[in-house]
Design brief:
- The complex is a heterodimer of chains A (98) and B (371).
- Chain A is α+β, with helices and mostly antiparallel strands and 98 residues long.
- Chain A has one domain: Ubiquitin-like (UB roll) (Roll).
- Chain A contains 3 helices and 5 strands.
- The longest helix of chain A has 11 residues.
- Chain A starts with a strand and ends in a 5-residue tail after the last strand.
- With 371 residues, chain B is an all-beta fold.
- Chain B has one domain: Methylamine Dehydrogenase, Chain H (7 Propeller), CATH 2.130.10.10.
- Chain B is built from no helices and 30 strands.
- The chains are: A alpha+beta (98), B mainly beta (371).
- At the A-B interface, α1 of A face β6 of B.
């Protein structure tokens, strides 16, 4: 299982309190992890990335093993520690707007 | 016993204010959806326990929330708003063509007869409808594609469809308003539309009397007389007696005819309320005095309503969807300010009291009356 940490507002929306865990078939990538999160919590569709284009929303960032991977191709495999569930994949609301 | 429920949307959540019919003591509940912008929330006339809310932030985009128990519990409904076909372009601030892009829902208007049917006015301007309680949305694209769309342009707040009026008498008739395109009417349930802006004059556009391009801020109708419309335009308060086919100015003796909301008394179709604002560059009341103006003559003759409202050092604004009336025998009038105050009058505007003073900036106010 892949562990995902959501920002507080999205936890409230999905009615979860801690990390969520999702099953990903095939390689763990940004796209496959987010597909799995949206499948498990459909109310999050459109909140992290555009529904149609799958492009990341401008003020949402993705972190893996302490690194900002937001600008990486969304089909690039995530680090092994994420794929094996040793580290969480983090969705973060960017600090913006003052 | 009669009671009222005031639904308040703010920059940082929603609040529900409730009272019995005396409207003296209020219970304040919230914030709901804390931290999110709630552009609008409104109850279904067909089932007052069914509420819809437009929830958004710049971070996480647009959601629509639905309650089946009067706001005690909520569930996310659908948020897939896709323009029908090729989205096309509208005018940008500099006059260049700009692609239509969905940004947010400004206004939710539940059907008069079906709790599961609800309309959404969105930015960039378009009208959507759901027939399944907000789960799925389809664009009524006859509005955006009827021909003038490429000439619409954003107002200072964006290019938003902010007003939706459903005619309770003439089946299939509805009105909408867009900043800055103007007012439009459909007579076939939203299938086809026509601009209804004859008589409007806007000096800030190349052709001041053009058929579209006017920055209409809000329109209102009384359910007993839906062919009569009142409009607060960017500048000018207007009236139409022919369902929008033509308009005449009724600003009369207002201290400023710039403003945002306009509302009509629940039982007196010729009693109209506006909140004059100094100018489009100074979004606060003239002379630092918060005054609601009331006309009992359908416009032109206006009186200032000041009792209970701050008459010095007041520099708040009242936004277009932030005024509403109840339908108790003594009509209640309510409005919210960008300073977070909700003012209520239980006597048609003669006297005012704050229900609550320190909410986040208020974006919308709606009222449900339980008789």
């Amino acid at each position: 299982m892949i562990r995902v940490i959501l920002p507080a507002h999205l936890k409230n929306l999905a009615a979860v309190s801690g990390e969520v865990a999702v099953e990903v078939l095939g390689a763990a990538t940004q796209r496959s992890v987010l597909d799995a999160v949206e499948s498990a919590y459909p109310m999050l569709c459109g909140t992290m990335r555009d529904r149609a284009t799958k492009r990341r929303r401008p003020f949402v960032r993705f972190f893996a093993c302490g690194l900002d991977v937001s600008l990486e191709p969304d089909v690039k495999p995530l680090p092994e520690a994420i794929a094996e569930g040793r580290e969480p994949f983090m969705v973060i609301g960017a600090i913006a707007g003052g | 016993m009669s009671r009222v429920r005031v639904l308040v949307g703010t920059k940082k959540g929603a609040f529900i204010l409730s009272s019995d019919g005396r409207r003296i003591r209020w219970k304040v509940e919230g914030p709901l959806f804390g931290g999110w912008e709630i552009y609008h929330l409104k109850g279904s006339p067909a089932d007052p326990m069914r509420l819809y809310a437009s929830q958004s932030t710049g971070w996480f985009g647009q959601l629509v929330q639905r309650s089946n128990d009067g706001g005690k519990t909520w569930e996310p409904a659908g948020n897939a708003f896709s323009y029908d076909g090729v989205a096309g372009t509208h005018q940008w601030y500099d006059g260049t063509a700009h692609p239509w892009e969905f940004k947010r829902v400004w206004h939710l208007e539940p059907s008069l007869s079906d709790p599961d049917e609800v309309y959404a006015g969105v930015e960039d301007a378009a009208l959507f409808r759901s027939k399944d309680g907000g789960r799925t949305w389809g664009e009524l694209s006859g509005l955006r594609q009827h021909g003038t769309g490429p000439r619409w342009q954003p107002g200072a707040g964006g290019m938003c469809l902010h007003t939706i009026l459903l005619d309770p008498v003439n089946v299939g008739r509805m009105f909408i308003a867009i900043s800055a395109a103007g007012a439009f009417r459909s007579d076939d349930n939203g299938g086809t539309w026509k601009p209804i802006n004859r008589g409007l004059r806007s000096e800030h556009i190349p052709d001041p009397t053009a058929d579209v391009g006017h920055c209409v801020h809000h329109i209102a109708l009384h359910p007993s007389r839906p062919n009569v419309l009142f409009m607060q335009k960017h500048w000018d308060v207007m009236r139409s007696d022919d369902a929008g086919d033509s308009w005449t100015e009724v600003s009369g003796n207002l201290p400023s005819d710039f403003g945002f909301p306009i509302e009509i008394h629940a039982h007196e179709p010729d009693t109209v309320y506006v909140v004059p604002i100094k100018s489009d560059s100074e979004h606060f009341p003239p002379d630092g005095k918060l005054r609601v103006y009331r006309s009992r003559t359908g416009g032109n003759e206006w009186e200032a309503l000041t009792r209970g409202l701050p008459q010095r050092n007041c520099y708040v604004n009242v936004l277009r969807d932030a005024m509403a009336v109840d339908s108790l025998d003594a009509c209640g009038v309510y409005f919210g300010t960008t300073g977070g105050q909700i003012y209520a009058s239980a006597d048609s505007g003669d006297t005012w009291k704050p229900i609550v003073r320190d909410l986040p900036s208020v974006m919308s106010v709606e009222v449900q009356t339980f008789l």
